[in-house]
Amino acid sequence: MDNSVEATISTTGNAVEMSLDERFATMRSIGLGSIDEEEELRVLLEKKVAPIYYVWCDPLPSVHIAQGIMMVLNVNKMVKDGCRVKILIADWFAHIHNRFGGDMSDIRTIGCYMIEVWKEAGLELNEVEFMWLSDEINRCPHEYWMLVMDVARNNTLGRMIRCWDKTFEYALVLYGMPADPYDRPDVVAPMIFEPCMQCAAVLLPKADIWLLSMDHDDDLEEVRELTREYCKDMKGGNRPIILSHNKLPNLLEDDEFGNIGEPGWAIFMEDGEQSLSVKVRKAFCPEKVAQGNPCLEYIRHIVFPWFGHCEVPGKEEKSGGSRTFHKVEELISDYESGALHSADVKRALEEALKKIMKTIVEFFGIQRGVNKKA
Fold first, then answer.
1. Among residues 170, 54, 66, which one has the least CA distance to residue 114?
2. Which of 64, 87, 231, 289 is 20 to 30 A from 336 (CA-CA)?
3. pTM of the model
4. In 222-292, at which residue ranges do the beta strands (DSSP E only) sit?
C-alpha cells in the first residue's frame, strides 16, 4: 500500500447556505463541550465561514465502528457545514507507545489502511486533508518542544500524575496490568511527561476547533481538560475550541471496559455478517429501558444519521409489514412504552448495519491480510 497521502481542502463551503443556528446545531451534534466552549463555538461560527477543524485519530489495527462509520458521518457533516477539515493521524504517539513494534513504516501503513476504510465508507476525500503528527512536529520542532516545556512549567507533578492515572486505569483493564504503578517494571518517566506532549500536539496546529476521542480514549479526555486549563491564561494566540466526540457504549452488560478483551464488546469494521449478527444478538438491550441502552445508542449515532430513518423489519411468522421511524425520539418512546421490544430493536440494528457495512466487508475480504499484519 502506498504510504503517501494526498488530499485537498476546498476553500468554498456550504456554510453560506446554512443559518448560524443550523451550523451550530450540526457542530453540537458531533461533539460535546462545556457551556463556555459552546458559547465560544457559536461566536466562532458567526465570525468565520470556514473554520479549521482538526480531528485526532490514533492508528489502530482493528477499526472500531466509531472510528469507521461515525468518523465518516461526522467529518462529512463538518464539510457540509463549511469547515476545512484536517484529520491528524497520531503516528508519533503510536511510535512512543511501541505499537506495531514502534516501526514507523508499519504505523503509517496502518494509518493509510484506515484512510482506505474511510474511503470505502464514503468520506468526502476531496474536502479533507490528512496529516501525520510526526511530520508536523518535524516541520517545527523548536516550537513544539517550547510548547511542551511551557505546559510542563505551568503544571505540577501531581497534575501530571492525575492525567496519567486515567490512562493507566484504561491500560489496567485493557492489558491486565497491576494497579500500583511502582509494581510495573515498564513504567518510565516519559509516561508522566506524556500529557504535556499531547497537549502541545493539540496546540501546535493552528486549529479553530479540535475533535478528540473517536472511541474510548480517556487519556485524550484528560488532555482536553489539561489543554483548556493551560489556555485559560493565554492572551490571544492559538486557543482552540476542544470538543469531545460522542461515544458508543460497550455492547455487553458490564462497565465500560469490563469485557474489552471479549470481542463481543463492540462492532469492528472487519466483522463479517455472521460475526456482526452474533454480536448484535448477544448485545445488552433491557426491555423498556432506553437510558444507556447500547443498541439504541448505535441506532441513534449510526443508523439514523446514515439512513435518515430506522426501519424495523416485520417478524417472518406474522403478516404485518415493517415499521419505519423517522425520528429517534419516536422509536425510543415506543420502546419505553413496550410497543417495541428488544428483539425488534436488535433485528432493526442488525439489518441496518449489514446494509451499511456491505461494501466495507467486501473490501476487508481483500485487505484483511494488511490489517492482520500488525
1. 66
2. 64
3. 0.81
4. 241-245
